[in-house]
Amino acid sequence: MEIKQKYDAYMKQIQGKPGLWEVNGETKEHLSLFYEEGKRISGGTDHQTVLYARAGETATGYAVSQCLSEDPAALLHQAAENGSVLENNGAAKGGVVPGNENVCSVEERKPLADVETLKQIVDRAEVELPGEKKTFAIKNTVHSQFVSNQKGLSRYYSRSHFELNAYVDGREYVATATAPELMQFQNMAADIAEMAKNDLPEIKIPSGNYRAILSNYVMNMFWITGWMLFSGRSYAGGAGAFAGRFLQQIASEKVNIQDVPALPGIGYEAPFDCEGTDGVVVDLIKDGVFSGLLHNLETAQKMGMDPTGNAGRTAGLVVGTDVTITPKNFVMCPGTVSDEEMLAKLGDGLYVFDAFDQFHAVNSASGQFSFPCSAVLVEGGVRKGVVRGLTMNGSMGDLLMDVEAVGDRLSYMPLLMHYTYQVAAPAILVKNLNVTVNI
Amino acid sequence: MLSQNEMQQVIDYTASKGTEFSELFLEDRADQEVRYSDGNVQAVKNVHIYGAGLRLINGTEAIYTYTNDVTLKGLKSLADEALSLLSSKAATGTEAKVLTLAHRIADPNPVGKEPSMAQLKEKIEIARRASGALESAGVPLLAQNVVYSDMDQRIWVANSEGVLASDRRVNTRARAYYTVGNEKGSSYEWADVVKCGGLEGWNNDELETYLREKLRSTYTCMNGETLRSCRMPVVMAAGSCGTLWHESCGHSLEAAAIADGNGDFIGLIGETVAGPKVTLIDDGTLPGLYGSSMIDDEGHQRQRNVMIEKGVLKTYLCDHLQGKKIGMRSNGCGRRQDYTFAPTSRMSNTYLAPGSDDEDEMIRSLAEGLYVKRLGGGSGGSIFSLLCTEAYLIKNGQIDRPVKNCMITGRGIDVIKKIDRVGSKLQAEYGGFCGAGSGLVPTTSFQPQVRISEMTVGGEG
Questions:
Q1: Helix spans in B23-171 (H)
Q2: What residues of B are in contact with residue A89 (Cβ under 8 Å)?
Q3: Separation between Cα atoms, residue A48 and residue A143, nearest integer Å
Q4: Quick one: closest CA in A to B375, which residue?
Q5: Do B51 and A48 touch (CB under 8 A)?
Q6: Does the CB of B77 have a partner CB in chain A at under 8 Å?
Q7: Does any CB of chain A come closer than 8 Å to the CB of residue B261?
Q8: How many whole angstroms separate alpha carbon A251 and alpha carbon A289?
Q9: What is the DSSP code (8-state) at residue B381?
Q10: Does A42 touch chain B if contact means CB atoms closer than 8 Å?
């Protein structure tokens, strides 16, 4: 809050200055603990504030600093100087990015949880989750953000988020919550139970096309980068697998996908994005029709659409310094088919339960994917054996059009390494999936 | 930044509270970036990374904390938080050794023309040249943008064993993102040219030559045929195909993997793990390479580590903590992305030593096979996978038609046993980022041309 006050005071001094002079300050505080067989074996705590400045009278430049003693005027003028380079090098069409005006909101800063609170979550997980040898990583993140500019924007929020990573029988599972008492393990327990059913003898299958179920986990692996297909920035530039197909049928009518600013009790919550725009629910695919895009102020203005509060700095592995597009809670909506019903509907085919290399597997321009994976061969709705060393190939467009059924249970996957967004997906049944086999 | 006396106070404080080992890592880093496309500068950014990490170790329990309040008061407060998390502390305090500045080590990447001293227009010119190279490559280009970036990182490491060391790492990079395409489809790729040490390395046409060649090969293979899954001999070109070693066995030879009980190389030091032509080295001292520096991020001098020698496993790559867990000393491989990460064992410049086999014979002697010229991303572990971004079928001893979207996968310890040819011409590469437990660190992975007698390759089934 002290840093915000310093920048608010400076913004008051330059109120009315032409162009945009804005600072977004993001503070992340963590307490994380690691438990093995009930004993705490390591942990950490950290505090980091990053100041993102964008400024300029006729063209916007950027500067970022983690040095808390940095003078506001120096930081903003560095940004403005970078912006002036644009004018002198022919990019005047870039101009000044739009900024929000005359919006004020301030919340209380949330405190970090203490060790005992986190330990209680782990103790509950130890009891409620199946499996013999379990290790846990529990983390509380307090994410606070302020945005302040010379146009009267001054907003601050602070949110607390809990994440439990459970390592059970050599595999990692994740549960998230916005408060300790809201941390539920039913989904995680269901995922563990499903995975245990895949402990079968290894068999071989030929490469080819199969009917297939893609598990919740596998669908999340697609969407952790696949959400970029709905970026307003890519679409406005004419790139992306669905370019030019807005308001057209791009998926089976069973497919619905949204981006939501909050998943009650579970997901990331950000009342506003890094430009100070309120987050809204965006229907990206509705009954199979391409219905929405994720926008920041600039891309919304370019396309004549409303901003959606999806300005962010992290896309996949890249943490940028300028404003791009990020989702908040990207959700492939659940359907009505249970895990058992889906297996029966599959009949003969593959149940793909694992996938790897999610940051390279989906090409965000073409929508093509080539995903190393593991699966179970299913015959007559019964699991027969596990197949490893597969690669599934195809395009996101074809995959979504081929959806025959959508599961009724969501699993969640936060973007590991960065506290930024979360994806959630059910299992899906597709009528055709091409796989190649290591032989 | 803290003075030596202030660093000593922080280390002494943690030692006095019962910590066996404590380490302070300080970082002050300045980056600049120029984004260029459509004939214009689109953005210029400055990034100032500034902070401190404090690590406390008792036995094998480790606590890591960080902050960007880099004052004596801020770090003592951080130390109190870290100490509260340490389960096991000595009953009485221990005494830290007096910090002694390490003797000066030869810098493998000395700084010539500092980025901070160069005019912005010089950096813009590099980006403009890269953009121009893409435009003039003679293939249908749907979209492109170029990012020039430079990094000037200063670090200081101080620990309770009396180590006080510092390093400065400077590099510059031109990264081109591009989408090529025609009526049949499109493909998105990126290409990097990296120079270590300063802006002096950009005064030739290496940038343009490399980018044009990369763009053309992307387009050629975009229109290639799809290879159905099969097993065949694979010849992998010299240079960046060395990513094979990084993903097939490199991560499994890091002490972190061994300590975690992961991978196929546990307990095999002294045993044959690869073909007799395989000598695999990781060397953080090589001049001019992206993975090189004077010290690692724990203050140890970098060194040359022969991991596998003529097929026999000789050592793992060790940092302080993971090495301790497996009973080995650090061999200069403790690395981290920045102060927000605890260090762990990581690769640096990983390469296969050259052999004596004839490169042409490797292909000439094959009735059929796959020639891989470039690799894209991949994932490692016991089972690895790599995307071939430029590959061609070999037919009757000749390089034949291109293939597209071809993955090669396998179990690392099996594949490296099938190396039956190793060429004599070692070729380095620009390098990239490896992502693992301690974040993104710069690495290179390279080799001479090699042949694998048989492995699984495939696009569509």
A1: 72-85, 120-135
A2: 40-41, 124
A3: 10
A4: A360
A5: yes
A6: no
A7: no
A8: 7
A9: S
A10: yes
Q: How much of chain B exceeds pLDDT 90, in percent?
A: 74
Structure tokens, A247: 């308001």
Mean predicted confidence (pLDDT) in B53-61: 92
Min Cα distance A336 → chain B (Å) is: 32
State the burial class of residue A247 (Cβ atoms within 10 Å of its Cβ: 0-12, 13-18, 19+). Answer: exposed
> Which residues of chain A neighbour B387 with C-beta distances below 8 Å?
360, 370
Q: Alpha carbon A299 to chain centroid distance?
A: 19
CB contact under 8 A, A356 and B385: yes
The 3-state DSSP class for residue A96 equals coil
Whether residue A416 has pLDDT greater than 90: no
Q: Position A155: which residue type?
A: R
Identify which of B389, B381, B431, B382 has the alpha carbon closest to the alpha carbon of residue B407: B389
Give the closest residue to B273 by CA, choosing from B418, B417, B384, B415: B417
- Please give the angle made by the CA atoms of B233, B234 and B240, to the nearest 5 degrees: 165
Torsion of CA A128, A131, A137, A141, to 10 degrees: -40
Burial of B101 from C-beta contacts in 10 A (0-12 / 13-18 / 19+): exposed
Please choose, from the candidates A180, A213, A199, A161, the residue with its C-alpha nearest in 3D space to the C-alpha of residue A412. A161
Cα–Cα dist B28/B52, whole Å: 9
Residues A291-301: pLDDT tens digits? Answer: 999 999 999 99
Give the DSSP H or E segment for B67. Answer: strand B61-67
Query: How many whole angstroms separate alpha carbon B33 and alpha carbon B17?
Result: 43
- The helix/strand/coil state of A314 is strand
Query: Do residues B227 and B368 touch, judged by C-beta distance below 8 A?
Result: no
Question: Do residues B438 and B335 touch, judged by C-beta distance below 8 A?
Answer: yes
SS3 (DSSP) at B310:
coil
- Dist CA A259 CA A242 (whole Å): 17
Closest to B293 in 3D by CA, of B88, B44, B110 = B110
Mutate to test the interface with B, among A49, A77, A82 (most CBs of B within 10 A): A82
Question: What secondary structure does DSSP assign to A149-216, as a single string?
Answer: ETTS-EEEEEEEEEEEEEEETTEEEEEEESSGGG---HHHHHHHHHHHTT---B----SEEEEEEE-H
Who has greater pLDDT, B208 or A170?
A: B208
What pLDDT band is residue A88 in, cutting at 50, 70 and 90? low
- Encoded amino acid at A224, one letter: I
Given a contact cutoff of 8 angstroms between Cβ atoms, the answer to whether A132 and A38 are in contact is no
Report residue B52 as tokens: 């401190």
Smallest CA-to-CA distance from B58 within B12, B7, B9, B14 is with B14
Residue B115 has a CB neighbour count (10 Å cut-off) of 20
Please give the average per-residue pLDDT across B228-255, as a whole number.
Answer: 93
* Model confidence pLDDT, tens digit, residues B186-228: 888 889 999 998 898 898 899 999 999 999 989 988 888 888 7
Place of tokens 């943490």: A319
Q: Give the helix ranges, DSSP H, for A355-438.
A: 358-361, 396-401
Min distance B214 CA to chain A CA atoms (Å): 18
CB A115 within 8 Å of CB A32: no
* B460 in reach of chain A (CB within 8 A): yes
Per CB-CB distance under 8 Å, the chain A contacts of B322 are: none
From the candidates A66, A138, A234, which should be mutated to test the interface with B, based on the most B CB atoms within 10 A? A66
Phi first, then psi, for residue A365 (nearest 5°) are -85, -50
If you average pLDDT over residues B153-170, what whole number do you get? Answer: 96
**Around Cβ A282, how many Cβ atoms within 10 Å?**
24
Here the ipTM equals 0.80
Q: Name every chain B residue with its beta carbon within 8 A of the beta carbon of A365.
A: 179, 186-188
